[in-house]
Amino acid sequence: MPAYLGHSSTLSFSRNVRNLLQQLSPNTDPGSVSTERQDISYKRTLPPIALDLSTIPLPKLPYAEYLTNTVLVHMGSLYSIFDSEIFLQRLRSFYDERDRGLVDKASLWHIQMLLVLAFGKSIQSREHSEMGPSGMSYFTRAIEAMPDIRRLYEDPLLSIEILCLAALFMHAADLLQEAYVTIGQALRISVTKVLNKQFPEAMRSTNFEYQRRLWWTVYCIDRKCAAMLGSPSVMREDDISIPFPELKSGDESQNAFAIHAILSSHLGKILDVIYGVHEQQKNFLVEVKAILSRLAETYVVLREHLPLDVQQPGQPLSRESATLHLLMHQIPAHYLSPVCRVDRSAGSVLASEAFIGSRCFKDQHPPFVISVRINVEDVH
């Protein structure tokens, strides 16, 4: 799997110089100039993962499969954190070897297994104690066994999956700072493995689509964690060239994933434009109106591909659709509060009247306008 070397990389510069020399002198031996790093003096045997599987009271295989499927159902199509078929196959293989007394050394996958079980158990029981959700014991074992970055780079894609699971669990357990830091690590591994870049088709790996979905999963979690904590995202939108997931008519799963990524990008723009550390922005209201316009366009797409009709109680609601509609109406709260600043001395709202009366606002879809008005009234 390639590693990213930007223009400022000295190794990238050395390779470009070597290529130039070879072009100017065709007789040059390609291997005469080595540009590969030889960190032989720093090679160390990595310590084993500190996880004793024999001491962990794991559930029976059928229930472990049930917990796994519970996680898949509740996460739905909003995230693409692990391949269900591959995971279940490895789970059955692990239990089979365990029943035969063949306890293998702990690996990264075993940490992922514990995180999945932690999620599944917490979702199923929905019981909380002073120690946290009911799956906290599995989660604690997984986090205690989490290796350092060298071990994570032995299988970077699996490590990204693990960090995403850990960040989501932390987020659900209200460990917001921990979730923000954890997903930041997944984001940086993703960047060093070039998941955020678009490549010509001839240069793409065989699992390109899996990597692209994994990237947008990391992206969505990062934006969510940054917004909930009120911290900036460490990834600029301009540094992302991988295309958004496509919308496919009739494919609810794919459309939910795609719209979730789009909504997360709006959230990222809000964090940058409105909450970023900038000088006085002359085009502040213009930027806000542009965000509002893009949100309204996304709302139309959401209603088209994932409609939500709450007026018919007899009809079952789609979890993905309900989640995305809630997110759609939560997002305005992230940018209306600074726009609608209250002048305490005058007892009036400085910008809200002009904002509400703008042509951009009036042109939006009625339910979206209602959501925005509710947030403005909260400011009053």
UniProtKB/TrEMBL annotation:
Residues 179-251 form the Xylanolytic transcriptional activator regulatory domain. Keywords: Nucleus. GO terms for biological process: DNA-templated transcription. InterPro entries: AtrR-like, XnlR_reg_dom. One of its GO terms (molecular function) is DNA binding. The keyword Nucleus applies. It comes from the Eukaryota. This is Xylanolytic transcriptional activator regulatory domain-containing protein.
